[in-house]
């Protein structure tokens, strides 16, 4: 298996195979079956073999079904005279035998695979390097270290010639070498190999923070550092691995067990026995589900758990007990361990000391406790004429701010919106008074906000926060100031002009003007909250931007149908077939953008708002999809699946991506997902009465949708 992610557990447990399909280098070789078999001999279908093996592992039936399946496949390939197919079967068999601890059985498989590859004239090719890596790993698992090192050396010499510099198969080879050095007590060399592996994988990744191969490398490195006594560095890398699994939504991967057990090992060394036990239990649950309980992997992890449990509550235990009374397995262990907090790296904890309240809540409290009393005291005749709230640019206006958003533009702030007449009378002085408002505040244990006082209004108790044991916060320095400021006093028309270019929404019969406003701009103009609007003038203008004309909505739906079809259903598969990963990558981007927009348009902006700009697009899409009455609620998760697999699909080769299976399975899943999304969109168009067609190639749905556009304005229709 080329990308040997589970091999990291050999630092303290048995080696495990990735599962089926890790090696399909040989699958692409020409089959000899047509030339060497007679009509009574069935040809060997390598693709069908790999898919069948995938199915066994996906059903977690490997323990009982994989062995007989592999034996029969070898017989079928031999009978068909398909040497390429047979080499594929042998490579897969080596990995499976390792996972089952069948090292003796692997001895003759190794010999046979090498002899077959030489007979096929593969020496010096990528397939030769792949086969050598698998054979070396099998020998290492059998503790035949001299033979393994020799095979690894041959594999490395070949791989450096035939693999690109940032090929992940090179990283996997460095990983495997590191384990050999670790097991033979050459730890500095092991660490060096792993650092090389991590460098290669991060350089090849489009998103290292959500990449399963990067996570595995961090765990590998953590275990070697642990053996070297570098405990602090080991913790950092082990924690980073789990963070990547969480960020990338990869916790359902079988390889998650490796990261869990690796972090547990570090916790045990830190004498945090209760926490270690929690992570061992969760690892056992994944192992039991994916590999079964009759494996070295499960047995050794169980023994590690028992050792951790035996030390829970002792004098040197630095963590509290956590479900330590039983050795749980299966789904019970997952449920018990789910309460364990996700570890954070030191850099993450240093970066954030967040205010525990959201920006919108802080803005409302700032208005209620400080701003509103000031206006009542200094501008009593205007109290019933001033609108207040927080709308516009900034993550807090969408309600998506978190601790990472608080390094800029965070602090007590709100907007005051005035008519032109009132702004002429008091605008400048009110802005000066707004800027003079005190902004220091505390947050108590109940997350209630308490401001220290109001310079403009003595009746506000300046000592109100002294009785609260809270944290004290001062506002961050805003980046947007002067003419570009995001809070303070505004003319209503000027406020919306600064965002959209329009003092009020375009007329309902001016579709060309609406089409000039992108959805992200409209989202910025209509987000946030209004705290008070006595005259209703500000709310009316804001609502006008929400009320997109129906003809415009239908026109945009048609445009999105066209882009989904063009980018996702047409150009993406063609680009992948050409091997143009960059074009495929851009096609996926266009497909995702168009589909996300489609979800908001189908749900109607007047009801749910608009899709915001890219940074918050998926935060908004997840929120919308989670609402009770959302239409197309499953599309968000499907789009994230497409993006997660896009790296392997677009830039993968054999051994790249999840489980080392290569680009083909990822590309196939993406294609299936794109078509599933298209089918769901058609169903929703039918439900809304916008089409009577069942055609799932969405370009052909555009005429049906455009039939419902009443305006004759040509800007609303696609070209014939």
Keywords:
720 residues; mainly alpha; Serine Threonine Protein Phosphatase 5, Tetratricopeptide repeat; four-stranded mixed β-sheet; 7 strands; globular; disordered N terminus; TPR repeat
Describe what you observe in this structure:
Residues 344-355 have a biased composition (Polar residues). Residues 514-616 form the DUF4037 domain. Residues 32-42 have a biased composition (Acidic residues). Residues 19-44, 312-356, 456-484 are annotated as: Disordered. It comes from Bifidobacterium felsineum. This protein is mainly alpha-helical and 720 residues long. The protein folds into 3 domains: 5-346, Tetratricopeptide repeat domain (Serine Threonine Protein Phosphatase 5, Tetratricopeptide repeat), CATH 1.25.40.10; 359-546, no CATH class; 550-716. 58% of the residues lie in helices and 3% in strands. The protein has 30 helices and 7 strands. The protein has helices at 33-36, 46-58, 62-79, 83-99, 103-119, 126-141, 145-162, 168-183, 187-204, 212-227, 231-247, 256-269, 273-290, 296-310, 330-337, 346-351, 359-378, 395-398, 420-435, 492-500, 511-515, 519-526, 537-546, 550-578, 581-603, 605-608, 614-625, 635-651, 663-687, 702-706; strands at residues 387-390, 415-418, 441-443, 449-451, 471-473, 488-491, 529-532. A 4-stranded mixed sheet has the order 6-2-1-7, with helices on both faces. Strands 4-3-5 form a 3-stranded antiparallel sheet. A hairpin with a 5-residue loop joins β3 and β4 (449-451). α7 (145-162) runs antiparallel to α8 (168-183) and α9 runs antiparallel to α10. It is globular. The chain starts with 32 loop residues before the first helix and ends in a 14-residue tail after the last helix. The model is unreliable at 1-39, 320-352, 455-470 and 654-660 (pLDDT under 50).
């Amino acid at each position: 298996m080329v990308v040997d992610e589970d091999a990291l557990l050999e630092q303290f447990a048995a080696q495990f195979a990735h599962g089926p399909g890790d090696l399909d280098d040989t699958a692409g070789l020409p089959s000899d079956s047509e030339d060497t078999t007679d009509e009574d001999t069935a040809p060997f279908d390598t693709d069908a073999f790999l898919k069948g093996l995938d199915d066994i592992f996906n059903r977690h039936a490997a323990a009982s079904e994989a062995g007989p399946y592999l034996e029969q496949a070898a017989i079928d390939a031999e009978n068909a005279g398909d040497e390429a197919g047979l080499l594929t079967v042998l490579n897969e068999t080596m990995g499976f035998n390792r996972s089952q601890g069948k090292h003796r059985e692997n001895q003759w498989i190794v010999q046979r695979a090498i002899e077959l590859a030489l007979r096929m004239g593969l020496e010096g090719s990528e397939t030769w390097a792949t086969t050598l890596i698998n054979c070396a790993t099998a020998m290492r698992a059998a503790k035949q270290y001299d033979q393994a090192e020799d095979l690894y050396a041959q594999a490395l010499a070949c791989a450096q010639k035939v693999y690109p510099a940032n090929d992940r198969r090179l990283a996997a080879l460095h990983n495997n070498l590191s384990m050999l050095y670790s097991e033979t007590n050459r730890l500095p060399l092991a660490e060096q190999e792993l650092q090389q592996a991590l460098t290669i994988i991060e350089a090849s990744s489009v998103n290292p923070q959500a990449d399963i191969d990067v996570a595995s490398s961090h765990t590998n490195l953590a275990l070697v550092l642990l053996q070297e006594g570098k405990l602090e560095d080991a913790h950092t890398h082990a924690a980073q691995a789990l963070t990547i699994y969480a960020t990338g939504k990869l916790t359902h991967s079988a390889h998650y067990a490796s990261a869990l057990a690796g972090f547990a090992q570090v916790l045990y060394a830190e004498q945090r026995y209760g926490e270690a036990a929690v992570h061992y239990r969760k690892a056992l649950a994944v192992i039991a589900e994916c590999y079964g309980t009759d494996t070295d992997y499960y047995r050794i992890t169980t023994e590690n758990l028992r050792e951790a449990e035996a030390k829970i509550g002792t004098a040197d235990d630095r963590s509290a007990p956590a479900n330590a009374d039983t050795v749980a397995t299966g789904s019970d262990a997952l449920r018990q361990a789910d309460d364990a907090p996700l570890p954070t790296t030191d850099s993450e904890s240093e970066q954030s000391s967040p205010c525990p309240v959201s920006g919108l809540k802080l803005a409302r409290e700032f208005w209620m406790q400080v701003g509103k009393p000031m206006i009542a005291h200094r501008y009593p005749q205007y109290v019933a004429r001033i609108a207040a709230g927080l709308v516009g640019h900034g993550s807090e206006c969408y309600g998506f701010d978190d601790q990472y958003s608080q390094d800029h533009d965070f602090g007590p702030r709100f907007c005051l919106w005035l008519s032109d007449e009132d702004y002429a009378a008091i605008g400048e002085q009110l802005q000066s008074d707004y800027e003079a408002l005190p902004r220091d505040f505390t947050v108590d244990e109940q997350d209630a906000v308490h401001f220290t006082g109001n310079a403009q209004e003595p009746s506000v108790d300046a000592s109100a926060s002294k009785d609260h044991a809270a944290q004290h916060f001062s506002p961050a320095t805003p980046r947007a100031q002067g003419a570009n400021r995001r809070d303070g006093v505004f003319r209503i028309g000027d406020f919306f002009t600064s965002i959209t270019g329009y003092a009020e929404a375009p007329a309902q019969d001016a579709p060309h003007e609406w089409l000039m406003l992108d959805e992200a701009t409209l989202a910025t103009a209509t987000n946030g909250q209004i705290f008070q609007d006595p005259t209703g003038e500000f709310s009316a203008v804001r609502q006008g931007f929400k009320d997109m004309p129906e003809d415009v909505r239908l026109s945009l739906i048609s445009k999105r149908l066209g882009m989904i079809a063009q980018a996702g259903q047409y150009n993406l598969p063609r680009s992948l077939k050409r091997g143009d990963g960059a074009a495929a990558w851009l096609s996926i981007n266009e497909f995702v953008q168009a589909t996300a927009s489609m979800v908001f348009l189908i749900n109607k902006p007047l009801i749910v708002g608009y899709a915001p700009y890219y940074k918050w697009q998926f935060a908004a899409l997840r929120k919308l999809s989670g609402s009770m009455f959302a239409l197309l609620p499953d599309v968000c998760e499907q789009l994230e699946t497409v993006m997660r697999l896009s790296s392997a699909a677009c830039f993968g080769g054999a051994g790249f991506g999840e489980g080392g299976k290569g680009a083909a399975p990822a590309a196939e899943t993406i294609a299936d997902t794109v078509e599933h999304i298209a089918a769901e969109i058609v169903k929703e168009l039918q439900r809304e009465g916008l089409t009577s067609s069942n055609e799932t190639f969405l370009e052909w749905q555009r005429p049906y949708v455009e039939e419902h556009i009443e305006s004759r304005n040509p800007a609303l229709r696609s070209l014939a």
